[in-house]
Specification:
about 600 residues, 5-stranded mixed sheet, 22-stranded antiparallel β-barrel, Maltoporin, Chain A, mainly beta
């Protein structure tokens, strides 16, 4: 799954540029292994979104990710409301999220997962979506996969940057500034964006608008202190306010402040490259609704890591690492835990046409003891235009602090275990590509909320272990083609059969998800895009109201962009062109027809 310029293609990208990048087989993946590898030489399933296609193709980043095979999202309302990503039928608690190497999952949440609700593409430069069980590389919460995000970086030497302004539906305004400098020995990048929106009612049973405002600042850089030593770091800060309509309660706001930090030093000694790093993440959430059940959530994470990598000649590359993590949370109660992990990966070029990756990881959890996970991945290239990939892996998810220590928690919970298998084939043509991947994931002892459980003594249910096997299996199909110098087409389809241990389909997971679209160069300065996404066979959760609108839906989007000068572009895009009335989470509204206009300039 090479660079995938799939999608409802960015309203600002030209078709020739997208197609040219789509078939570069030397594209690097940083998430598919412990060390960066050419994507053509890894068996891992990785989708990569780059450049303009990250920043300006949609208002919410989840809408852009929805167009990738095997990916879908759910949202509890407008921009800023709680939103989550599913990979291959597995919900967000099985998906790790990192931004500039910082683990952004919320240790104070019900589960350790990332809320995509306030994240747009502004200030982002590259996204990798790594699918399938990745616990052997990333530990707990990576059974479904990992989303690795890198913020904007300068692409040329000297001082450069971009500014963008956008306005549109629901009185939404966005302003963004990217500024960077790249020199012979290093680079630094700063991104700031501001979003204001009046929004619409999240609650399907009223009409009061739920607004959102957010400031987001990122800073990253590195410098070669000597020929052998590089030092650097990154910072992410988000501060937002989202209006909130609780069911049966009085409206209030959710106030969230996040701070992520990471520093690193890379040192080369002979044949071994060393990296020492420290990561920190802190989140504070406040619910100002009168009578809020839990008005305050605080979470914190410290992570110390060492990673070594050695070139062992014809035997490939050997990587080895040590990682220590501490997490804590405070809500209605508090709790903490730590984990020490040891990881090793051997990347072996078995022949000119076969590459193999073998990874093992041992996690020593402060509460649950040892967990050993592994992954074997291989790619075989029987010809210049063919690639066959296969991956098998095991994974685990430790109970979250909330699942163990909150008023609804059970301290006797044990980790979930998983197995993941996939096999895929890709065929390249002179003007396009097609790909198919079969996947199968099983989870034992899944942790879920049981309204009838009494172990925690809450009187209204507890988290508990679900006996038996939860299964998610299916097929991903994708294709893209450059029809001529002016027109490119793409399409993908995912069938997902995701069943709980009782045989029931997992809620909020579509069985069928199909996308088709085109990108056209209409003149030297004018380009356009058009896409259709159809989702079918979706069941609401057991907690959805009886009048929910979770089910089949079809979304149509389009965009036009005009290059005013070589460095300035004006654009317009329309989301949900035919005003489809649908819900992805029962009882929560989604956006109707929405139009946005914007201007982007680079220097």
């Amino acid at each position: 799954m090479r660079y995938f310029a799939t999608c409802a293609i960015c309203a600002l990208a030209t078709a020739p540029a997208v197609a040219q990048e789509a078939f570069e087989l030397d594209t690097i993946t940083v998430s598919g292994s412990l060390t960066p590898q050419e994507i053509a030489r890894t068996g891992a399933s990785v989708e990569i979104i780059n450049g303009r296609d990250v920043e300006t193709s949609d208002t919410a980043l989840t809408n852009r990710l929805d167009r990738l095979p095997g990916v879908n999202s759910t949202s509890n309302g407008p921009l800023g409301a709680s939103s989550s990503i599913q990979l291959r039928g597995l919900p967000a608690r099985y998906v790790g999220v990192r931004i500039n190497g910082i683990d952004m999952s919320d240790p104070s949440g019900t589960q350790n997962q990332f809320n995509f609700g306030g994240l747009t593409g502004a200030g982002l430069g590259r996204i990798e979506v790594l699918k399938g069980s990745q616990s052997a590389l990333y530990g707990s919460e990576a059974i479904g996969g990992v989303i690795d995000i890198t913020t904007w970086q300068p692409s040329r030497d000297g001082l450069s940057g971009e500014v963008r302004a956008e306005a549109g539906a629901f009185s939404t305004t966005t302003g963004a500034l990217n500024l960077g400098y790249r020199g012979a020995r290093g680079e630094v990048a700063l991104s700031y964006n501001r979003i204001d929106s009046d929004g619409f009612s999240a609650n399907a049973n009223n009409s009061e608008d739920d607004g959102f405002e957010q400031d987001m600042l990122t800073l990253s850089g590195e410098v070669d202190a000597t020929d052998a030593l590089t030092v650097g770091g990154s910072m992410i800060y988000r501060d937002n306010e989202a209006d909130f309509d609780p069911f049966g309660g009085t409206a209030g706001q959710i106030l969230t402040e996040e701070l992520g930090l990471r520093g690193f030093a890379r040192l080369q000694t002979g044949a071994i490259n060393h990296e020492l790093s420290y990561g920190y993440f802190d989140i504070e959430r406040r619910d100002t609704s009168p009578g809020a059940f839990t008005p305050r959530f605080d979470g914190e994470r410290d992570e110390f890591a060492y990673l070594g990598s050695a070139d062992i000649g014809s035997a490939g590359t050997l990587s080895f690492g040590l990682e220590y993590t501490e997490e804590s949370f405070k809500a209605d109660t508090s709790g903490s835990n730590d984990n020490l992990a040891t990881t090793v990966e051997w990347i072996l070029p078995a022949s000119d046409t076969v590459d193999i990756s073998l990874a093992l990881r041992h996690d020593e959890d402060g509460e649950f003891g040892g967990e050993l996970t592994g992954r074997a991945a291989a790619v075989w290239r029987p010809g210049d235009d063919w690639a066959v990939r296969a991956v098998a892996g095991t994974g685990f998810r430790a109970p979250s602090l909330f699942e163990r220590f909150s008023a609804f928690g059970d301290p006797n919970l044990k980790p979930e275990d998983s197995e993941s298998y996939e096999i895929g084939v890709e065929r390249l043509f002179g003007n396009g590509r097609i790909e198919a991947t079969l996947f199968h994931i099983t989870i034992d002892d899944l942790i879920d909320f049981d309204p009838g459980a009494i172990a925690c003594g809450s009187g209204s249910g507890c988290f508990g272990q679900v006996p038996g096997e939860t299964t998610s299996r299916g097929i991903e199909l994708s294709a893209e083609a450059q029809i001529n110098a002016f027109l490119s087409l793409y399409a993908n389809y995912t069938f997902t059969d995701s069943e709980e241990a009782n045989g029931q389909q997992r809620p909020r997971t579509p069985k069928h998800d199909a996308v088709i679209g085109l990108d056209a160069t209409l003149s030297d300065r004018l380009s356009g895009s058009f896409d259709i996404r159809h989702v079918a066979d979706v069941d609401p959760s057991a907690f959805a109201p009886a009048n929910n609108k979770v089910g089949d839906y079809t979304l149509v989007g389009m965009g036009l962009s005009h290059a005013l000068t070589d460095s300035t572009t004006a654009y317009i895009r329309v989301e949900n062109l035919f005003d489809e009335d649908y819900e992805t989470a029962g009882g929560f509204n989604t956006a109707g027809r929405s139009a946005f206009v914007g201007l982007r300039a680079s220097f």
